[in-house]
Amino acid sequence: MSRVITFGTYDVLHIGHIKLLKRAKSLGSHLIVGVSSDELNQNKKGRGPIYPLKSRLEIISSLRFVDEVFVEDSLELKAEYIISNNADILVMGDDWQGRFDHLNEYCKVVYLPRTPSISTTEVIEIIKETK
Ligand code: CTP
Question: Mutate which of 72, 120, 126, 127 to test ligand 1's pocket (most atoms within 8 Å of Cβ)?
Answer without folding.
Answer: 120
